[in-house]
Amino acid sequence: MNVPTFADVSRARERIQPHIHRTPVLTSRYIDGLVGGEVFFKCENFQRAGAFKVRGACNAVFSLNDQAAANGVATHSSGNHALSLTYAAMRRGISSTVVMPRTAPQAKKDAVKDYGGKVLECEPSTAAREAMLKKLVEETGSDFVHPYNDPRVIAGQATCSLELIEEIGLIDAVIAPIGGGGMISGTCLTLAEKLPGAKIYAAEPSNADDAYRSLKAGRIIEDDAPQTVADGLKVSLRGRTWHFVSRFVDDILLVSESEIVEAMRLVWQRMKIVIEPSSAVAVAALIRNRDLFAGKKVGVILTGGNVDLDKLPWLKQ
Amino acid sequence: MNVPTFADVSRARERIQPHIHRTPVLTSRYIDGLVGGEVFFKCENFQRAGAFKVRGACNAVFSLNDQAAANGVATHSSGNHALSLTYAAMRRGISSTVVMPRTAPQAKKDAVKDYGGKVLECEPSTAAREAMLKKLVEETGSDFVHPYNDPRVIAGQATCSLELIEEIGLIDAVIAPIGGGGMISGTCLTLAEKLPGAKIYAAEPSNADDAYRSLKAGRIIEDDAPQTVADGLKVSLRGRTWHFVSRFVDDILLVSESEIVEAMRLVWQRMKIVIEPSSAVAVAALIRNRDLFAGKKVGVILTGGNVDLDKLPWLKQ
User: Is the pTM of this model over 0.80?
Assistant: First the structure.
């Protein structure tokens, strides 16, 4: 199993720089007061396509040689990775195809099409999705870019914390949400090289605590269709992300659904920025564990800002 | 009638600098594409107390001599000026009292109290409000800081466009919302000195078009209890703001309620920032009048971000 090294991160950074934003790092006196520490929010909600996923997607797409690129790229996702891969393919001028369950929201299908991507609809099951993707890759020779279990993707995500520590300098800890583990693996990759003394915390919904249980058990445990408002975090670890999580993550901090929603609302209200529930998981973990972070310099990755503004989780439908 | 000069703006800037944020200027490729020009958003939604009003309030409070300051400050407002004046008084360590209709939302009263301000409740009429404020000022010697018809307030608001043009350089036009006219008067004051060739557009809800009708008539026309989602823009011009509006504003651009709500939602969705309806009035005017702004460099003042997240105007209640 090939896992990326820090040299891959340096190359990723050069490669993706023309295609992504260097996102701002924001602070909030209110949240600093709440935690009793200094908190630095890396705002990937302002990233192209609205989430950090565009880093990994661009790194994968722009590291293909011309011959491979000519066959296009493909993935399965109904979330930010779908949009990000399509964006990256558009930037390179190659085709992209996304396998999505036919039950996915029309808005997500439309967003992929707006960037020039193709949507292939499958039955909403893992087996159906994988079968359709396999067939597609065999027939077209498209390069399959997995949402997180791909060394190019992990190296791309690692550029996020690299920017953060370049801007802030020494920090004591970083908190990032964990789903499949792409962002947290990238964070491990960068911090192990640049700030090996910093603590790395993954934040996870209690309702989708497969990574937490995996870390305690010492092996990957998969969740079966977890229910959480943080819909970007429902997937499970895979080999390459487990590699990093098992070696470098200091702890996984669990938060409840109501803590996620409250943290999301707090950030909107106080910081005047739009973040999605998955981002709020990291903020909720920060607030719930303030004893861990008091007196410390803490980086928090706000992973994305793609929200359905017609369905806010604090409002009754 | 004393009106401020640009020298007052320079002094205001020095005076308030320790107490306010220098807010960022953001851009959006999407909105640039929509308009066909280059648009620079001055983000006062990130300002202390959530709105530009803190500039004028701080300038008023910190220009008092110690003897006058000892008697505290007072105003009538149930909006951003109330919070801003209370914040400014807290920074100086003096008392502040806000006369508010008893029907004002409890959240607004609580916010003033959180900053250490006193709330005096009156019957919801102009006469009752003015009588109570007059009595208060007579009894306590408090300095009355009008929300906009005050030279110190106008000079404070003028620092906003000063920061904008320092950061962006030459611009062809500025759009700011107009209610009582404090922000637009400050904008006139700065641009007349620094960029006399730039166009100045005020943006106003059609449902509260008193400034528009005033400009056409050549005299102040007051609205009687207008109904608009942009609740910061319901008040009418007064002598000092009319002075600037009548001399320097090139045009007043009207927008409908649905245009305001759509523009607000668009900014949240695309720029991932929280703006209040009054801010969205300027964005709606930009989009509606794109022919006016195509090929131009345009500054848009996003005046504030204080929104009731439980009552978003695009959602049915």
Answer: yes
